[in-house]
Amino acid sequence: WRFSFDSQTGELYIADVGQNAFEEINKSVTTQTGALNYGWRCYEGDSAFNTANCPNVASLEQPLVSISHNNGSCSITGGYVYRGTAIPALVGSYLFTDFCFASIGAVDQSGNLTYLANFSGNTFSTFGVDSSNEMYVASINNGTISKIVSTLNVPEIAARALNLTPNPAKNTISINDVQTLVLKDIVIADMAGRVVIEHKLLNAQSIDISKLQSGMYILSAVDSNGNTRTSKFLKE
Question: Are residues 99 and 75 in contact, defined by beta-carbon separation less than 8 angstroms?
Answer without folding.
Answer: yes
